Amino acid sequence: GGYMVEKMGKVLFAEGREIGFESASETAAEETLQALAAENVTLFEGTLISGQKLARVDILVKRGNEFQLIEVKAKSYDGQEDAAAKAEGRPSLFWKKKGGAIISEWQEYLEDVAFQVLVLRELFPKAIIRPFLLMPDKSKTTQIDQLHSFFQIRRTKKSGSKFTRLAVEFTGDVERLRADHFLSLVPVGAEVQELLPGVAEAASEYVASLNRELRMIKTPISIACKNCEYRIGGADGRDGYRECWGALADAKPHLLDLYHVGELGGRGGPVANRLIQQGKAGLFDVPKGSLVKADGTVGERNKRQITQIDYTRKGGEWMSEALPKILGAFKYPLWFIDFETTAIAVPYHAGMHPYESVAFQWSCHKLDSPGGALTHSEWINTEDAFPNFQFAESLMECVGSAGTVFMWATHENTILSTVLRQMAARGYKNGALEKWIRGIVKLDAEHPGRLVDMNRLTEQHYFHPLMKGRTSIKVVC
Prior knowledge:
Blueprint (H helix, E strand, L loop, with lengths): L1 H10 L5 E2 L6 H11 L4 E11 L2 E11 L2 E7 L6 H9 L16 H20 L4 E9 L14 E7 L6 E7 L3 H6 L3 E5 L1 H22 L29 H6 L25 H7 L22 H15 L3 E2 L3 H6 L5 E9 L15 E10 L6 E7 L7 H12 L4 E4 L3 H16 L4 H10 L10 E3 H8 E2 L9 H4 L1
Parallel strand pairs: 1-2, 4-5, 10-13, 13-14
Antiparallel strand pairs: 2-3, 3-4, 5-8, 6-7, 9-15, 10-11, 11-12
Helix pairs in contact: 4-6, 12-13
C-alpha cells in the first residue's frame, strides 16, 4: 500500500523528474542541487545533504524562491475529522484537544517532515519553505474499479549488492487517476514549526555521536522499552535491551509484564517510570496505592492489575465466583465466530474509501449441547467483487437468531457494524439482514446485542500467572 500511495502521489505531478538513489548519496545530492538551480522544477526522491545530515524528499516543488516540500505517507487521514477539529478551535486534527501539543500518533510523521525542512533550510536559508503531507483521505472515494491492479512492483538487485530495490509502475489511465484520486495535500507548517527545535537538537546529538569514536547515546530506560526491538537474547550474547537495563532485566516477575503498566496511578501516570529510575523493576515492587485511576478510585484495569500481582505471588490461577454462573447461563447452541478482513490504502472496488474494511472470510464452530460434537461452517470470497454483503448474508444464514454467539475481542462486532453502515452508504436493500445485524451487534449501552466477547470475560473473570499481563486468545489457550 505504501508503495502504491507514493507512486500515486508522484503521478499527480506531471512535470516531476525522478532523481532516485541508485547512485551514491553524495552523487544523488549533487544531481539534486544541480536540478534545483533551475527557476522552476519538480523533483522526486531528491537527496539533500547538509553537513552530516541527509534527507530524501518524496516530492520537492521549486517555484522561484519558494519550495513545496511534500512527504507522501500511506497513513490514513480524514478530511472531515480535520474540519471538525478546526471547527472546535484546534489548528488541525494533529493537535490535542487540550494542552496545545501534537498528538503522539502523528508525531513521528511530522518529525520526519520537520527534519527534511531542517536540512533544506540549511541549504537554502533565504528560501520560503512550505511543508505538506500527502495522504489517503478516508472521507474521499474513487470510482476507478480495481485501482490496485494498475500498480506493478518490480524488484531489482544491483550487481554485487545484497539489497533489493523496488520500482513501482502505474499501468492505468494517468489522466483519469489525476481527476479521480483520494489523496489530500495537507499543509503542516504550524506543526513543523512546533517540532523543529526538538528535531534540530536531536539531529545535533545524533551527529555528535558519529564523530570521532562511535558512541552509544545514553537514553533513560522506561516502560517504552517494553517493545524494544533489540530484546533478542541471541546465542552470541548480543541483547540491546539487556545492554541498557543491566541487572534490572533479570527481575522475575518483571514490572514490564504488568497489565497496562503505563496506567499506574492513572492514565499516563509516572509511577512505573519512577520505580525504574529507583532501580526497581519487579512486579512486586509496585505499591498497592498506585493501583488506582487518576481520581484515586479503583477502576476495571486496576482490579485486573491487583489480581495479577496477588495471584502471581500465590503462583496459582484465579477464577471469579461469578464465572461458572455466567458460563452456565449461555443459551445453546453456542456459536464461535472468527473473521478475516483487510483494510488497505488503495481500494479494491469503485466507490470504496481508502482503508475501508473488506470482509472476505468467516469461520464458525457450533456446539449444540454440553459435551456435544463441534460442527464447522465457513465461507470465503472467491469473486472479484465487493464481498461484504454476501459475507454477512451467508453468516446470517449459518448463525440465525438462536443461541449465543462468541467472539474474541471486538473485531467481529466492528466489522458487522461497518457492514450495516456500508449498506446505508451504498443503498443496499436487505431488510432481513439489516434487522439481523442490528440484533447481533452492540450498537450502544441500550442495545448490547448477542455477541459475547470472551476476551472481556477473561479480563473480568480469569487469570493465570503464565498469561502475565496479556489476554490474547493464543496466550490464554
